[in-house]
Amino acid sequence: MAEDLVLDTAIRDWVLIPLSVVMVLIGILRYFVSKLMLSSQLPDPKIVKEGQVIVRARNLRAAANFIPPKSFRSRRVYFSNEENGLLFVPKGQAQNPQAQMFSDPNMAMDMMKKNLSMIIPQTLTFAWVNFFFSGFVAAKIPFPLTQRFRSMLQNGIDLSTVDVSYVSSRSWYFLNLFGLRGLFSLILGEENATDDTQRMMQMSGFGFDPSKSLGAEKDGLDIVQHEWALPKFEHRAEAALKKLIK
Amino acid sequence: MVSKTEETQLNRLENQVDNGGGGAWDYLCLVRKLKVRRSEKVFKYGLSILNDPKKRSALGPEEWTLYEQVAIAAMDCQCLDVTKDCIKVLQKKFPESKRVGRLNGMLLEAKGSWAEAEKAYSSLLEDNSLDQVIHKRRVAMAKAQGNISKAIELLNKYLEIFMADHDAWRELADIYVSLQMYKQAAFCYEELILSQPTVPLYHLAYADVLYTLGGLENLQTAKKYYASTIDLTGGKNTRALFGICLCTSAIAQVSKGRNKEDKESPELQSLAATALEKDYKQRAADKLGLLTSALRSLKI
C-alpha cells in the first residue's frame, strides 16, 4: 500500500483540462464536417417496401382480434403464402443483404465515409495523447480498484508499486471519449455524429435486418390465434348504454 | 388524428389570435404541426407577419417554412399572386430545391394546367422515386380532374410500396365508397382498424359499409361493430345508436323464417332506442315525435 502521492496542480492545468477541451472541440468539428459531407442517400425502394411490410404485418398481429376471422385468415395467407407471400423469403436470398451491402458502391462509400469520420479523429487524438502525455501519473480515481486494472489504466507508468487508483492520461482520454456523449447531446442537439458507441452497435446489426425481421414477423403471424373480440363488445356496449341511461 | 388536448389548445389559440391578442406565430406553428387545414386564417396571419419586416427578421431561419406554409394556404384560398410571390422568394433563396419544385407543381395544379403539373411532378419523381408527397399529389390531381379510375390505380400502386400509410388507405376507402365498390371499401376499412383499433370512426364507417352490403352475416358483423363504436365512444355516438336499431330490425327481417340463433344481446336494441330518446329529448326535443314514430316502425 503506497502512501498518498501528491500530484502537481500543474498536471490538472496542463493535462486534464486541455485534453477535455481538445476532445470537445474535435467533437464539434466532426459534427460540422459530417453535416457538410451529408450525401442525400437515396433510399432503396426494396428496403422501404420491406420496412412498410413489416409495419403492416406487425399491425395485423397486434390488432388481429378486431377484424372478422375470415379477413384475418385471408390476410395471413397473403403474408405468409409459400409462393408469393410478402413475408416469405426463400433460403437462397437470405444471404444476399450482406453481400449486397459490400458490393453496392453507394452504400459501401457511405459506410466508409462514416467509419472514416469516426476512426481518424479517434486515432489521431489517441496518438497525440500517447506521445505528449505519457510516462506520468495524471489523476487519482476516487475509489479503490483491484490489481487487474493496472495494465489497462497505468500504461505509461512503469512502477508496479504505485496504487492502481493513480492512472495515466490515457485512461482520462477514454473516460472523456465515453463521457462526453452526454455533453454533446446537450450542446449539439440529439442527432450528432459523435454518437460513436451507438453507431458501433448499429453497424453490427445492419446487414441482416430486412430478411431476418421478415422471417421473425412471419413466424409471429403464424403463431397468432385469432380470437374475435367483437362479440364481447356487444355486451360491453349494453353495459355502457345502461350506465348512460341511468 | 388530433387528440382532444391538442384540439382545445388549437381552439384557444385561434380565439386568442382572432380577438387581437398576439400569439399568431404559435398558432401557425401548431397548425403546421397538427397538419390541420385552416387556410384562411393561416393566410391572413401569415401574410401579416411576412409583410412586416421587423417580425419577419425576428423569425430567423423559420421564415422560409412560413413562406411555404403561406404559399400553400394562399393556393387553397385561390390567391395565386401571393403564391407566386412567395415561391419567387423561396426560389431565390433555394435555387435547386425539390421542395420549391413541389410548390411550383402545386401552383400549376391550382391554376388548372394539369399537363404541365404532371410533367413537373414526373421530373421530380425521376430524381427521387420514393417521394411520398409527390405521389399523393398526383393522386389528388387525378381525382380533381374527375379521372377516378386513374386515381384508384395510382393510389393502389402507391400503397403497394407504402402499405403502412393509413391516410392513403382512408382516401382509398372514401373513393371506393363513392363508387359503391363496397367490398373493396370494407377491405380498406379493415386495414385502418388494424392500424388504429381504438379510433371509433373507423369502426363506424366499417359497420356502415357492412350494413350497406347486406346479407345476414354482414348484418350481424355490422351490429357488432356498431356496438364496439358505442363502447369506444361511451354511448354518445348517435349514428351508432341508430345503426344498432336498424341492424337489429334488418336481421329480424332477413331471418324471419329461420330460427333466431343469436340471442347474445337481446336488450341492445331497446337500450339503444332508450338512449336515442334521451339524447333527442336533451338536444332536439321538437324532433322527438319523429324519432318515436320511426323507432316504432322499425320494431315491426
TrEMBL record, chain A:
The chain crosses the membrane at residues 14-33, 119-143. Its main location: membrane. It is a multi-pass membrane protein. The keyword Ligase does not apply. Keywords: Membrane, Transmembrane, Transmembrane helix. It is found in: Membrane. InterPro entries: EMC3, EMC3/TMCO1. It comes from the Eukaryota. Belongs to the EMC3 family. This is ER membrane protein complex subunit 3.
UniProtKB/TrEMBL annotation, chain B:
It is found in: Endoplasmic reticulum membrane. Part of the endoplasmic reticulum membrane protein complex (EMC) that enables the energy-independent insertion into endoplasmic reticulum membranes of newly synthesized membrane proteins. Residues 100-209 form the EMC2 TPR-like domain. Belongs to the EMC2 family. InterPro entries: EMC2-like (IPR039856), TPR-like_helical_dom_sf (IPR011990), TPR_EMC2 (IPR055217). The lineage of its organism: Eukaryota, Viridiplantae, Streptophyta, Embryophyta, Tracheophyta. It is a peripheral membrane protein. Keywords: Endoplasmic reticulum, Membrane, Repeat, TPR repeat. This is ER membrane protein complex subunit 2. Component of the ER membrane protein complex (EMC). Pfam families: TPR_EMC2 (PF22890).
